[in-house]
Design brief:
Rossmann fold, binds adenosine-5'-triphosphate, 4-stranded antiparallel sheet, binds magnesium ion, 7 helices, 10 strands
Amino acid sequence: MAHGEALIRCRDVHKVYGDGTATVTALGGVDLTVTAGEFIALLGRSGSGKSTLIHLIGGLDQPTSGEIRVEGRSLGELDDSALTLYRRHTVGLVFQFFNLIPTMTVLENVLFPSVLDRRLPRTEARERAAALLEAVGLAERQSTTPDRLSGGQQQRVALARAWINRPTIVLADEPTGNLDSTTEQEILELLGRLARDEGTTILMATHSPEAMAVASRVVHLQDGRLADEAASC
Ligand SMILES: Nc1ncnc2c1ncn2[C@@H]1O[C@H](COP(=O)(O)OP(=O)(O)OP(=O)(O)O)[C@@H](O)[C@H]1O
Ligand SMILES: [Mg+2]
């Protein structure tokens, strides 16, 4: 998809958790359009619905009502296998606590999504993983295990892993929430560089004011709704 086109469209998205007796409205009607090539920082207080929105766009959960379209397809209309493919091909995920597999080496962690996906032949996948590890400055640490790396280095591995399958969108949920401020800056810059080099669109939930400097747009969530009128469509 060319830069400048609508990539993600959320229309009146609601998410209500609970069983009828005790319910929580995490999202109360979100309208958001994300254009290909944008780097969006999603800001909001704890509990404002940032992770919920990221999970819905990532196809990890479904809205209670409303519609999410990505590349023109409505996620609610995808069957299980199409949704699995969507999660593998279209989306890359980065988490606050890295979520690396401790028993795998750095290289194996980066390769893991490509092993599940099986689109890339093994040699190509290895070459791409090596190139991504080089890009994040960890070419020398391929054979080590995550427990021997610092938090910032573990997040670099997670970035390489998020990009291995050439995702259209990277969804990052507080990727610097567990890092000191110098490391935070490095990770934010890396996210920006990977997005530019790979042509990826980014939606990043964050509490960090630093994020505003790297993002192309800042969107505020307040009690499950977008606070910034200019950000909604
Ligand atoms: N699985 C769940 N079951 C019930 N309630 C939930 C669930 N997940 C989230 N919530 C509630 O939905 C609301 C939004 O939560 P969400 O995790 O999206 O917020 P957030 O903006 O990511 O917060 P934080 O900055 O603390 O990560 C909160 O009130 C939360 O308690
Ligand atoms: Mg959250």
